[in-house]
Amino acid sequence: MPLVVPALRLFMVFVNVYDTYKTLKIPPGRKGGLPSIRAMTQRKRDLKGCLAVWVVWCCLAAYERTFDRFVSFIVPFYSEIKSVMLLFLLLTRAKGAEPLYLHILRPLIKPYVDTLDPLLDLARDIGDFLFALSQVPLNYVLS
Fold first, then answer.
1. Per the UniProt record, which residue ranges are transmembrane (predicted)?
2. Alpha-carbon span 82 to 62, nearest angstrom
3. What is the Cα–Cα distance from 4 to 102, expressed in whole angstroms?
């Protein structure tokens, strides 16, 4: 069973990337013209589904990095439960991820948006500064 979860995780990433690629392409129009309103509405709906899948996937990945080893000691059959959860997300795609996002993740995050936004902006600015600093040649600084 230890090989099933990484294989499912890898397959899910590839499926997510491919679905996002297909969704981001603008639908073709009739006779080379603009796409219909119906096609653009469907594209918008598909984009919302892709975004929900990626948000749920990123939250799952962050959860696994921080709590996975601790929870696996406490919960029996944890690897099997996680495999079923990944299969559920893989088979239902956006239809399974959207309710998880709308009813679980969004209510958890919404009260902290005013606090998280400045912190994430600060983290991005620090990361940009460190990246710019890493671009300075080392022998220029030492001389």
1. none
2. 14
3. 28
User: Which tokens hold the place of 42?
Assistant: 């469907």
Q: Is the pTM for the entire model greater than 0.90?
A: no
Angstrom distance (rounded) from CA 75 to CA 71: 6
Establish how many alpha carbons lie within 13 A of residue 135's alpha carbon, considering only the half-sphere containing its beta carbon.
6
Residue type, 26: I
- CB-based contacts of 133: which residues, under 8 Å, 6+ apart? none
For the segment 47-69, what is each residue's pLDDT rounded down to a tens digit? 999 999 999 999 998 998 899 88
Where helices occur in the chain by DSSP H, the ranges are 4-24, 37-74, 78-92, 94-100, 106-109, 113-134, 138-142
Instruction: Say what the pLDDT of residue 1 is.
Output: 60
